[in-house]
Automatic annotation (TrEMBL), chains A, B:
Pfam families assigned to the protein according to its UniProt record, in alphabetical order: Hydrolase_6 (PF13344), Hydrolase_like (PF13242)
Protein name in the entry: Phospholysine phosphohistidine inorganic pyrophosphate phosphatase
Function (record text): Phosphatase that hydrolyzes imidodiphosphate, 3-phosphohistidine and 6-phospholysine. Has broad substrate specificity and can also hydrolyze inorganic diphosphate, but with lower efficiency.
A cellular component annotation (GO) from this entry: nuclear speck
Catalytic activity: diphosphate + H2O = 2 phosphate + H(+)
Entry similarity comment: Belongs to the HAD-like hydrolase superfamily.
E.C. number(s) listed in UniProt: 3.6.1.1
Gene field: Lhpp
Any one GO biological process: phosphate-containing compound metabolic process
InterPro entries named among the record's database cross-references: HAD-like_sf, HAD-SF_hydro_IIA, HAD_sf, LHPP/HDHD2
Protein source organism: Rattus norvegicus (Rat)
Keyword hit for Hydrolase: yes
Keywords linked to the UniProt accession: Cytoplasm, Hydrolase, Magnesium, Metal-binding, Nucleus
Amino acid sequence: MAAWAERLSGVRGVLLDISGVLYDSGTGGGAAIAGSVEAVARLKRSPLKVRFCTNESQKSRRELVGVLQRLGFDISEGEVTAPAPATCQILKERGLRPHLLIHEGVRSEFDDIDMSNPNCVVIADAGEGFSYQNMNRAFQVLMELENPVLISLGKGLIVARGYSRLQVEAWINGSVGQDGEKSDCSLLAVRELPHTEPRYYKETSGLMLDVGGYMKALEYACGIEAEVVGKPSPEFFRSALQAIGVEAHQAIMIGDDIVGDVGGAQQCGMRALQVRTGKFRPGDEHHPEVRADGYVDNLAEAVDLLLQHMDK
Amino acid sequence: MAAWAERLSGVRGVLLDISGVLYDSGTGGGAAIAGSVEAVARLKRSPLKVRFCTNESQKSRRELVGVLQRLGFDISEGEVTAPAPATCQILKERGLRPHLLIHEGVRSEFDDIDMSNPNCVVIADAGEGFSYQNMNRAFQVLMELENPVLISLGKGLIVARGYSRLQVEAWINGSVGQDGEKSDCSLLAVRELPHTEPRYYKETSGLMLDVGGYMKALEYACGIEAEVVGKPSPEFFRSALQAIGVEAHQAIMIGDDIVGDVGGAQQCGMRALQVRTGKFRPGDEHHPEVRADGYVDNLAEAVDLLLQHMDK
């Protein structure tokens, strides 16, 4: 592999994934990953442009940023690209009035959106909100439209609630691991979400269905295809780059997800580093399809390298 | 089209669809279709073999037969081929112990099935039973299996509850009808189900998601393909023929569903008549892919023709 100087030359902007890079979500609001608070601070003091780029869709930016600020991060709402606000922009641009099938935690993002007489459906990881009644309501709204539009915040398969990465790995590798392909497919989509209510945790811990399956159900029943807003969609990365005025070839993504972060960014013309934190697995460094421009132990190491090899 | 004598020559056995051919389900237990009670009686007095072949999966055979007997039909449980008992036979043959995600109304069909330590999932139109919790439990059972098996009782898209066929047609044609393909796709899968509780009806009437979408969600999330038990699966028709010892080329299906009944039976080597009752629509007689061996006003006319042209 080429020297770091070559691989990092000409970088002017940095996109940072949040969960698994800045902090590990989990019990009690989560914990900062060692060195990440300082790394973000150093990056923001440097000439490099910085943007946070997350697929979080159960928390509003306000709540997410609140969690991160309490952990010591220098971050504000206006610096975050997330599926819900990106969707709001799309809704406004196209005159769409959504029927929402989403988690209550993210509903405030849609506060200034006209929801009268809906002409599209927005679906996100609604958790317990995926009741038969709610699914039917979304289905009926779509069926009543001449040109049904379904927007999905991400298309993840599985959420692992109340489990550490290692527990999830052990589960998948132990129980399903004979089938290499499925293990991979499952783990790639695992997101670790916090659980704050013990009762809820007890009832629903384990591998849970994420929005992807429910998106498929509506696609199938209505004979339509959803528009996915979130990584690895190229439009999503482009909107993050646009916000900091940086071209793709001058930008680098730092994430823990070899497919969603690294592969997605590269397909968009960006470079991408994978950190060995969050949902990183050793096997990621030999992924059959995606090869990062570099693997680093954590965000702190990534920022060291970036600042060291930055064009002066 | 050839004369009836030619089209019906050599028929020795008849498969009868139930809903929309014998009776229209709906408010208050449903109503016999004019002439059908007598037609079934005449058929059973004739030398022709008779078998009832239904996709009903919210009622046990006992309950279904009870409804039909109260309407005057000569029918017994042992004469009915239905997805739930067909599934039980598959489970026993293959040593499968199911986790059930089904409607309570059909649960008694599984009374003598071993459900300890499940090694497969059986999914059917569970209605309100399609909660996030129940879907997750089914998903988790599948994920824990080395070779996950998912059996689906039918793969219908949409159920129309508490609506007449005409209301559903008007709805679909009026609201979605600009897009011919989707209208077709939707209507083909419509089943009219009775609603017995007014509260339930008020809350959930209209077009509702059937098992198909939920089957797709599990397929997608687990990376597997479901085995579908019910029309138009060839195995299902074959099991009905086997029960009366009649070969496919000697058998005729009588149904109201141009794709599920007529197309499915023909692909199995049988002949098939479509009745102009139940979910029949005039457009069915010009269906782009399926052409029945004959169209008749109702079961009574079909039986008239069959008895008239039967080999003496």
